[in-house]
Amino acid sequence: MNALLLSASSYKDTGYLNHSKGWIKEFLGKNWDEEILFIPFAGVTRTNYEYEKRVQNCLENSNIKSIHHYKDMKNAIKNAKSICVGGGNTFMLMAKIYEFDLLDEIKNAVRNGAKYFGWSAGANIAGKTMMTTNDMPIIMPKSFESLNLFSYQINPHFISGQIKGHNGESRETRLNEFLIANPSEIVYAMPEGTAFLIDGDKAEVIGHSDILKFEYKKDVQTIKIGEKIKI
């Protein structure tokens, strides 16, 4: 299995997908020059066509084609060599994936050799469930179960500590709440500018900072850049 899971579409002030363009191109290899099937369903505030064009322009690759162009979406996934899932609202993304009955198709395609990459919501749903998303539940998907390509929970866009002027819970508090309710789970918190590069049953941390591992009633562990975990 091959996957690239990006915490976010941007890092600091580098602009949309600029920090990850090289990673994506290297990850895809020869697939960069062939059709890349794009799943735009998380993009609530833009049309599928607008989202497709934005990703094409930012990655400078006209081979990216949105799945909404296909009448038979399942067959498009089955024949895809590369699948890209964009960020946005995770609840909407999973609701649409369930509406079109695409979950098992995506899983099977990746396990049969298709390369998968996604950012933000697209990374979150590659985990065991979507329950550690940061997004507002604007729609109810059929289930919180997601692709489970990465056998643990993912929390993208992780920011440590209490944000100045914000009186609500910190991200650490929210993740600890999840673990109290789900004590057997493990959460990997990914700051912006980080990614998991998955090859087979190993995931390597790449990017600009370390990733944090949260477990119930255990000290938070740091997974450093270059380290690999078994998935």
Automatic annotation (TrEMBL):
GO biological process: proteolysis
Keyword annotations of the record: Dipeptidase, Hydrolase, Protease, Serine protease
Presence of keyword Repressor: no
An MF annotation (GO) of this entry: serine-type peptidase activity
EC number: 3.4.13.21
This protein's record includes keyword Nucleus: no
Top EC category: hydrolase
Recorded family membership: Belongs to the peptidase S51 family.
Protein's recorded name: Dipeptidase PepE
Organism listed in the record: Campylobacter corcagiensis
Underlying gene: pepE
